[in-house]
Amino acid sequence: MKFIDEATIKVYAGDGGNGIATFRREKYEPMGGPSGGDGGRGGSIHLVADRNINTLVDYRYTRVFRGQRGENGRSAGCYGAQGEDLMLRVPVGTVISDKATGQMLIDLAEHGQECLIAKGGKGGLGNIHFKSSINRAPRQCTKGEPGEEFELYMELKVLADVGLLGMPNAGKSTFIRSVSAAKPKVADYPFTTLHPNLGVVRVDSNRSFVIADVPGLIEGAAEGAGLGHQFLRHLSRTSLLLHLVDLAPLHEGVDPVQEAKAIVEELKKYDAELHEKPRWLVLNKVDMLEDPKARVADFVQAFGWDGPVFAISAITGNGCKELTYAIMEHLELTKQHHSEAHGAQDDIAAA
C-alpha cells in the first residue's frame, strides 16, 4: 500500500428534508385540519481514528464526501426519515484543519476518538406546526436547512516515542531492524527509505517504546531539497530524537562533522520547536574504525557536543542494547515528570 500522509478533501453534510403542507382528507372528515409532517435531518459526517489504518491513501483519490439528504415530510403527520450519517475512518495521529482558514479543528490521537466534522441540516417544518386558534388551515411550511460544508486538510503525524534523524545512509533503517521487529529496506545507496517506518522496541515483557525511522535529510531540506523535509512532521510527537551519524562514510572527502552540523541547521530552519526537543548523539558504524574511542572523542570535540553520546554498530548490534535501555529509562522519567507536573497543576486549580 502506498504511504500517503496528507490529503485535501471536501465534505458536504446532507441537507434537511422539506416540510410539507397537507390536510386530512378522510371519509368522515373530508375537510380535516393540517397534517403535513416535518422533513428529516440531513446526514452528518464524522471522523473516527482507527489504529488498523496507517495511511491516508483512501482520501488521495476520493476527495468529495456527501452525507445523505433527509427525506421530505409526508401527509398524515408522518415525518421524513433522517439521512444516514457518514463515518470517515482515518489513521490514529491525523490532524484535521480547515483548508480556508488554516485553523486546526481536531487532533485524532487516540484509537476510537470520534469527531463531528460537518453537521447535517435541520429538516423543514410541516404545516402542522403553524396551526393556531385564528389560523385553522395554515398553508405555510418551511424548507430544510442546508448541511455544513468544509474543505479539510488532513495531515498524518505518526505516533512514536523516539524519532531517528540523520543523513541518508547513516544507518537509521539498519538500527531500527537491529532493535525491533520492523524490517525496512536496507541498501548501500542513499534514499533507501522512502516513507516512515515504525518499530516497537521491547526492553522486557512489560516495557516497550515506539521508534520512527523517516527518510534522511540533506542540506537544503528546509527549502524542499531531498525527501526528508516532507516527513519531519512525523517527529513532532516524539519525546526524544536520536541523531545518527555515520563515522565511516563510504565516499572519501565526506566530513561527518559537517554533515551532522548541516542536519542540526536544517532542523532549526524547519521547526524551532522540533530543534528544542531532547536530542541524543548516536555515532554509528564504529565496527569499521581502527580506534573507535579516539575517533568518537575527536568527533564530539569537533562537533562541540555536550549532550548524551552513544557509540554503536547497528549492523552487529554492538552498543544497541545499552542505548535502548537508556532510552526506556529516559522515557519513563519524562512521563513521571509530566504526571507530577499535571498533579501539581490540578492541586493549584483545586485550591
From TrEMBL:
Its EC number is 3.6.5.-. Residues 160-332 form the OBG-type G domain. It is found in: Cytoplasm. GO terms for biological process: ribosome biogenesis. The keyword GTP-binding applies. GO terms for cellular component: cytoplasm. Pfam families: GTP1_OBG, MMR_HSR1. GTP binds at residues 166-173, 191-195, 213-216, 284-287, 313-315. GO terms for molecular function: GTP binding; GTPase activity; magnesium ion binding; ribosome binding. It comes from the Bacteria. InterPro entries: G_OBG, GTP-bd, GTP-bd_Obg/CgtA, GTP1-OBG_CS, GTP1_OBG_dom, GTP1_OBG_dom_sf, OBG_GTPase, P-loop_NTPase. Its cofactor is Mg(2+). The keyword Lyase does not apply. Keywords: Cytoplasm, GTP-binding, Hydrolase, Magnesium, Metal-binding, Nucleotide-binding. Mg(2+) binds at residues 173, 193. Residues 1-159 form the Obg domain. Monomer. Belongs to the TRAFAC class OBG-HflX-like GTPase superfamily. OBG GTPase family. An essential GTPase which binds GTP, GDP and possibly (p)ppGpp with moderate affinity, with high nucleotide exchange rates and a fairly low GTP hydrolysis rate. Plays a role in control of the cell cycle, stress response, ribosome biogenesis and in those bacteria that undergo differentiation, in morphogenesis control. PANTHER family: DEVELOPMENTALLY REGULATED GTP-BINDING PROTEIN-RELATED (PTHR11702), MITOCHONDRIAL RIBOSOME-ASSOCIATED GTPASE 2 (PTHR11702:SF31). HAMAP family: GTPase_Obg. This is GTPase Obg. It comes from Pseudomethylobacillus aquaticus.
